[in-house]
Structure formats: structure tokens, C-alpha cells
Amino acid sequence: xxxxxxxxxxxxxxxxxxxxxxxxxxxxxxxxxxxxxxxxxxxxxxxxxxxxxxxxxxxxxxxxxxxxxxxxxxxxxxxxxxxxxxxxxxxxxxxxxxxxxxxxxxxxxxxxxxxxxxxxxx
Length: 122
Description:
By secondary structure, the protein is an alpha+beta fold. It has two domains: 1-45; 47-115, SH3 type barrels (Roll), CATH 2.30.30.40. The chain contains one helix and eight strands; from the N terminus they run αββββββββ. The protein has one helix at residues 2-44, and strands at residues 47-51, 58-62, 71-76, 80-83, 85-92, 95-101, 106-109, 113-115. The strands form three sheets. It has a three-stranded antiparallel beta sheet with strand order 4-1-8, with no helix packed on it. Strands 5-6-7 form a three-stranded antiparallel beta sheet, with no helix packed on it. A two-stranded antiparallel sheet has the order 2-3. A hairpin with an 8-residue loop joins β2 and β3 (71-76). It starts with a helix and ends in a 7-residue tail after the last strand. Mean pLDDT is 76; it is low at 13-44.
């Protein structure tokens, strides 16, 4: 009885080793290839906008999408900005849209930026 149990267990172990590595490789190979392409595609493409403040010389860049967030930088009037995406934030003269800048630079109010290309939602 012990011999039969050992033999059946050994056969099952050999079968598992023979089957599972092939299915594991097949399962991991398919999803990774499109995902890597997908990430590269979006990382390389940004929308573009131009700073158009009227009464101010510079546009504040904030740490989050709202006037309550701290100022982390600024850009001069006329400067072109790469824009990652748009999101909702605090109201600036009737406009609740904010643009996220790349590389964790921050957010700017859409009220002060004129789009040159379409901006996707975050």
C-alpha cells in the first residue's frame, strides 16, 4: 500500500511539474506584452496648453487640484505646458477643471490655460 501511494504521488508530482510551468509561462507572457506597450504609449504623449493669465505675470503651480493646496512653482504668461490629464478641483471663476502636469510638478487651473490639443480625464 505504501508503494502504491508513493508511486501515485510521484506520478502526480511529475505531472504537475510538467504541466504548470508551461501554463504559467503562457499566462504571464500574454498580458505583459500589451501592458508594456500600453504604458509606453501613454507616457510619451501629453496634451499641450498655453498659459493665458490676464492680470498676472505668472501662473501658480499647486501641489493638488485646488487653491487650498500649496504653491510649488509657477510659469510665465505665454509659456507652453505639457498636460498629462484633467480633473475636478476647486472653483476658479466658474471653472472647476484643473490640469495635472507631468513628472509630479503639480496642477494648474484650467481657467488660465488655453488648450492646444485635447486633454484626457485622469
